[in-house]
Specification:
This protein is α+β, with helices and mostly antiparallel strands and 575 residues long. It is built from 16 helices and 20 strands.
Length: 575
């Protein structure tokens, strides 16, 4: 059905008036102190944007394909940060964002960054965003196909191309990895090329429709390495032509696949690709644990520098740049918000970070994003960081339901939200658990709809303690073989019952675990067996919902101001 132009969403109406590419020359004469709404829309396509709550403060987003940049670029970025008193955070797409720019320096810094070989084009807005890969691409022991040359081919196809600059129906995230084990999952991408094998040949299986809260679906397509760029070109054109341009809430690829199905979209793809697809191969992905130092294929070492949950100072940039120059090391940024140095001859403690952030992905937070309820990077102090670090449990911490912390693609996911469910408190966290994220088998499920921040440390500590009691050495396997055999409400009740009875009773302590998902009757019998004395069991009828609600409010209601609360800078005791 042909929709009228009046039904186009606001961004599409601006595109109809002028293409972003044609708007670009206006940057030279733009009054950055008096920007209109249209200006702010167009500027996003070149990596320039402002927050709704601080329109006079500008941010510049840097596009770093596969997270690659040189030591010289690192040093120049440090000088820019120092000169203009800026601060920098790493994104969950292996990019960088400069904060603190103003109307009188945003254009000059924009020009300086783009002149140093780092593009800011199409890093925001309705574009193919920064294309990511695994940080050990091409050099690590699990690397079978080097993806970086393909990443650059894909970027060259869309970067600064008038037809595509800001003109897609919505943003598209793309990931590709030729590794059989990745530092972190990539199934949150709209388009993901994952290592596969067919008839003894390595290539890529295609997955589509992922986002921060959904797992990408298997498209049943296998591509050889030299076929990826042709497929990518067909994909971009198919989405350009057939993606929805109406309600912004329904313009992501995920919703197009919901509407016309995977087979429907594949027909559009075949039209653009101009040949039929080979059916999918065998996915080549395994779980691996990556240490601070890893031995690479050529016998040299890599080093993982843990950032302050994505925050990096000018001093850190300078130190890392100097070290990389001295050691002739390559710098790569990971989608886990850590910085990696490749090609070291020996271990060196000069750069070791005191942070415990290696497996924790934290969104920008309220300091930088208008959608976040809390300063997520500081609220990580509510977590049992030492235990998380010890067991290498992957945590995704988002500041809102948009999920930039990829909370449903990690072992334990968190969303910081506001709540008045527990008395005089407005800080709460929704907890997700059970994602089988390595192979994209499943996203995390809601465990608790809300835990007051003041109780988050205790709740997380109990979850980890029960994991320790289970005997499993990997939390994702624990999820697959224990947690995911039970309903979310049963798991919530079991944990709350442990808190109520002051126990650490692991799931099914005295009997064998089942091998299939259990029904309500079985779960109810287990609770009656192990927590027979709890009065809230009387509230269990055909679900555990009322009992879980009553027990959580009994345990977590806060009366008045929390006496144990301390500002984040003083919360060292939580570590």
């Amino acid at each position: 059905m042909i929709e009228t132009e009046s039904k186009l969403n606001k961004r599409e109406r601006y595109k109809a008036q002028m293409r972003p590419f044609d708007y670009f020359p206006e940057l030279e004469t733009l009054d950055f102190e008096n920007l209109g709404e249209g200006d702010r829309y167009y500027l996003q396509d070149f990596g320039i944007f402002t927050a709704e709550f601080a329109e006079e403060d500008f941010t510049l987003r840097l596009r770093l394909p596969a997270g690659r940049l040189t030591a010289a670029q690192f040093q120049e970025l440090a000088e820019i940060l120092t000169t203009h008193d800026l601060h920098m955070i790493m994104t969950a797409r292996a990019g960088l964002q400069m904060f603190g720019l103003e109307s009188d320096n945003i254009l000059s810094v924009f020009k300086q960054v783009n002149a140093m070989g780092i593009s800011t084009w199409q890093s925001f807005g309705d574009n193919i965003r920064n294309i990511v890969s695994d940080v050990y691409d091409g050099v690590g022991e699990y690397s079978k196909i080097e993806a970086y040359p393909i990443v650059m081919q894909m970027q060259d196809h869309i970067l600064e191309v008038p037809r595509y600059v800001g003109m897609l129906p919505r943003r598209i995230s793309v990931g590709i990895s030729g590794n059989s084990a990745n530092v972190t999952s990539m199934f949150a991408n709209d388009l993901y090329f994952s290592l596969a094998q067919k008839e003894g040949v390595f290539g890529f299986n295609v997955y589509m429709g992922g986002k921060n809260t959904e797992v990408a679906q298997d498209a049943d397509i296998f591509l050889l390495p030299d076929e990826v760029i042709g497929f990518f070109a067909a994909f971009v054109e198919a989405f350009y032509k057939h993606g929805s341009r109406f309600s912004r809430a329904k313009t992501r690829l995920f919703y197009l696949l919901e509407e016309i199905g995977m087979d429907g979209f594949k027909k559009h793809l075949e039209t653009e690709y101009k040949k039929s697809f080979n059916s999918g191969g065998e996915l080549q992905l395994e779980k691996a644990r990556f240490e601070t130092y890893e031995t690479l294929k050529d016998g040299t070492l890599s080093f993982c520098y843990e950032t302050d949950f994505g925050r990096v100072t000018a001093e850190e940039f300078e130190k890392i740049a100097a070290f990389a120059t001295e050691q002739n090391a390559e710098i790569r940024l990971g989608i886990d918000q850590n910085i990696y140095l490749m090609g070291l001859k020996e271990k060196c403690a000069d750069l070791e970070s005191p942070k415990l952030s290696n497996t924790i992905l934290a969104c920008a937070g309220s300091d930088y994003c208008p959608f976040s309820f809390w300063n997520i990077k500081d609220e990580t102090s509510y977590l049992p960081l030492e235990k998380i670090h010890e067991h290498r449990i992957e945590i995704g911490f988002s500041g809102c339901a948009k999920g930039c912390g990829r909370h449903r693609h990690t072992d334990i996911g968190l969303i910081g939200l506001k709540t008045n469910n527990f008395g005089a408190t407005d800080g709460g966290v929704r907890v997700f658990i059970g994602a089988e994220h390595t192979t994209g088998a499943s996203a995390g499920r809601t465990l608790f709809s809300m835990v007051p921040l003041e109780h988050l440390h205790a709740a997380m500590s109990l979850i980890i303690a029960l994991y320790e009691e289970s005997g499993f050495s990997d939390f994702e396997r624990y999820s697959a073989e224990v947690l995911n055999l039970f309903s979310e409400e049963f798991l919530a009740f079991w944990l709350l019952a442990n808190i109520k009875t002051d126990q650490m009773l692991k799931f099914l302590p005295n009997e064998s675990l089942p091998t299939e998902r259990q029904d309500f009757g079985y779960e109810k019998a287990l609770l009656e067996k192990y927590f027979a004395g709890l009065e809230v069991l009387d509230l269990v009828d055909d679900s555990f919902f009322e009992a879980v609600t009553a027990l959580s409010k009994e345990l977590w209601t806060i009366k008045g101001e929390d006496p144990h609360y301390k500002p984040p800078i003083e919360r060292n005791s939580f570590r």
